Amino acid sequence: MDGEARWRRNNRVSQGHSAGNRRSRKTSSGICRARRLDGLKFRRQAPLLGYTVDFLCFERKLVVELDGRQHDVERDYDAARSEEIERHGFMVIRFGNETVLNDRDVVIARIREGAGTATEIPLLQGEGKVR
């Protein structure tokens, strides 16, 4: 059994079913869905190198991970996983639930920076207004 499968088996109770985690995933998927962010295509819960990543933009080799409370106890596992993914040329960006829920502009700016599409005005396609 690989590390991720073992971790999932041992952490079934805390696998992201809290209300805060669901809200942060919904918020992030809103940012990353339907090519809304600079026309980038993100796949949600995508398989990559034997892992399942939260969001993957393959064309930019960018992985966006959302870290809920369960990640506090799995920091070493997450760090090793990120290192392996990065060794294959991907960039991994991690956000805590609180950041996703409370600071959307920071999330957008960091994703754009990682994807190399950073602009002066953080505007999502379809929003129609400048913040």
User: How many distinct domains?
Assistant: 1
**CA radius of gyration:** 15 Å
In DSSP terms, counting alpha (H) and pi (I) runs of 4 or more, how many helices? 5
In N-to-C order, the SSE pattern is: HHEEEHEHH
CATH T-level fold name: Endonuclease, Chain A
Q: Return the CATH architecture.
A: 3-Layer(aba) Sandwich
- Helical/strand content category: alpha+beta
Proportion of residues in extended strands: 15-25%
Overall pLDDT confidence: 75
Number of strands: 4
Amino- and carboxy-terminal Cα gap: 47 Å
What is the CATH homologous superfamily assignment?
Answer: VSR Endonuclease
Give your account of this protein's structure.
The protein is an alpha+beta fold. The protein has a single domain (24-115), classed as 3-Layer(aba) Sandwich (Endonuclease, Chain A), CATH 3.40.960.10. It has 5 helices and 4 strands. A 4-stranded mixed sheet has the order 1-2-3-4, with helices on both faces. β1 (43-48) and β2 (51-57) form a beta hairpin. The protein is globular, with a radius of gyration of 15 Å. The N and C termini lie far apart (47 Å). Residues 10-21 have low confidence and may be disordered.
